Request: fold
Amino acid sequence: MTHFRPAPLAAGLLAATLAFAAPAGADGARGTAYVSNQDGDISVIDIASLAVVGTIDAEDKAPRGIGITGDGKLLVTANRDGGDISVIERASGKVIRHIKIGKNPEFVRILGDHAFISFEPSAKGGPPPKGGAKPPEKDDDGDREPAKIAVVDLRQMKLIRQITSGPETEGIEFAPDGKRMLVTNEADNTVTLHDIGSGKLVKTVSTEKYGNRPRGIKVSPDGRHYVVSLEYGDNFLVLDDKLNPVKAVPTGKTPYGISFDRAGGRLFVAASKEKKLQVFDAKSFEKIAEMPTGDRCWHFSFTPDDAQILLACGRSNDIHVFDAQTYAPIKRITGKNLPWGVVTYPKSMGSLDRP
Reply:
């Protein structure tokens, strides 16, 4: 049986755990963070104390992508080993349903009552090349199964359709009108724009001129720009609201997770091989700060009050916490098992989610 397992508690953390067990929305004053551990379970972190107050049993599914519904009632994870998603009642930590998606599900975004999950039936991405080696040649044999976005109705608890994208789908973002979806496709170095209602491909943007293997993608809070991290290009690409390339901006090695802050004044990029979380001015795109991190840090989230940033560092098995204004390190939460993603409730800005 799947259930929430409280961590060993000091007396001062008891209230935080009771808040988690209460109905959704009854979090403590600063909220709760959820971390998907690819080689473990889902860690539950009380943001006020920055302590792990429990885990949610992932049932040996290898959770990666993670998202929360707007009302905070459901937590959804994309499970690498299960080829499915887990729909979890957030208040109790119980799995309500496993819904089969397809091979290698990775990224989760939730829009209203629907979850959108990227999955990669013929993924060959692997880690970035070493020592400046060139990325692998594109597969042109034409017989690879195209990657897709699974659309799950969370009211009916079932897969209702699939949207075909480019090979090896990765990041997902929604246009400000909520009617279109953008997908990064790392194997053919494109960003594709799709009509959500029909699934129709509206536009394809190549990133090859600026860098290969597009990964993270985010729209600015004012809706005027999109940014795409290019893992093999060691930069991010700025697109205007019509998806025309504007400029490429150098980053540290192998950028992945990317997000604006809530005000839209700064852009944060997790440069995983550089072992830094970098900060850029969101208007000029000049680098203004960077924070040393652990190994292969992929995704991050602000706290709901925007005061801190939680960064999941997969290969050092820890969560790094920084002050979001001074960039000073606050804490390392250790003992994780290949942490992949982090989201919060109340919902926050981050590489996997937004309010």
In short: The longest strand covers residues 94-100. The radius of gyration is 19 Å.
